[in-house]
C-alpha cells in the first residue's frame, strides 16, 4: 500500500465572486461511476490532502472549489496509479539426488 498526496492552488477571487468556503475532495477507482467524498478543506489551511495506505489500483481524484453561498466551480481531476507488489518467492525449494 502507498500514500497519495494531493496538492492544489486556489484560484484568485475577483470582485464579482463570493469568497471561497472550502475545496471539496472526492475520489473513485477508475471505471467506477460513483464519486466518494473524502473531505472538505478550508482555504485557510494547507491546500493538500493525504490518502493513507491506498490499495493497489488506478484512482481518479476530483477537487471542486465551493464559495460561501455553496456554489461550486468547475471540478479539476487528476489520477494516480498505486502499483501492485511483485510476487513473493517460492518456498520449500530443494534439490535432491536420486
Please characterize this protein's 3D structure.
Strands 3-2-5-6 form a 4-stranded antiparallel β-sheet, with no helix packed on it. The protein has a two-stranded antiparallel sheet with strand order 1-4. Strand 2 and strand 3 form a beta hairpin. Helix content is 0%, strand content 48%. It has strands at residues 2-7, 20-29, 36-41, 48-54, 57-67, 76-82. The mean pLDDT is 95. The chain is built from no helices and 6 strands.
Run of helices and strands: EEEEEE
Q: Report strand %.
A: over 45%
Strand order of the largest sheet: 3-2-5-6
Number of helices: 0
Distance between the termini: 44 Å
Largest sheet: 4 strands, antiparallel
Instruction: Enumerate the spans where pLDDT stays under 50 for 5 or more consecutive residues.
Output: none
Could you tell me the number of beta strands?
6
Class by alpha and beta content: mainly beta
What kind of oligomer do you see? single chain
Any idea what the shape is? elongated
Task: Characterize this entry briefly.
The protein has strands spanning 2-7, 20-29, 36-41, 48-54, 57-67, 76-82. With 98 residues, the chain is mostly beta strands.
What distinguishing features does this structure have?
mainly beta; elongated; single chain; 4-stranded antiparallel beta sheet; two-stranded antiparallel sheet; 98 residues; 0% helix; 6 strands
Write the layout of secondary structure elements.
Blueprint (H helix, E strand, L loop, with lengths): L1 E6 L12 E10 L6 E6 L6 E7 L2 E11 L8 E7 L16
Antiparallel strand pairs: 1-4, 2-3, 2-5, 5-6
Amino acid at each position: 500500500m502507498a500514500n497519495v498526496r494531493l496538492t492544489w492552488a486556489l484560484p484568485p477571487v475577483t470582485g464579482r465572486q463570493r469568497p471561497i468556503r472550502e475545496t471539496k475532495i472526492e475520489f473513485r477507482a477508475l471505471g467506477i461511476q460513483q464519486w466518494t467524498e473524502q473531505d472538505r478543506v478550508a482555504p485557510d489551511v494547507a491546500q493538500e490532502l493525504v490518502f493513507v495506505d491506498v490499495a493497489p489500483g488506478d484512482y481518479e481524484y476530483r477537487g471542486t472549489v465551493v464559495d460561501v453561498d455553496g456554489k461550486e466551480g468547475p471540478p479539476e481531476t487528476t489520477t494516480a496509479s498505486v502499483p501492485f507488489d511483485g510476487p513473493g518467492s517460492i518456498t520449500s525449494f530443494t534439490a535432491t539426488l536420486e
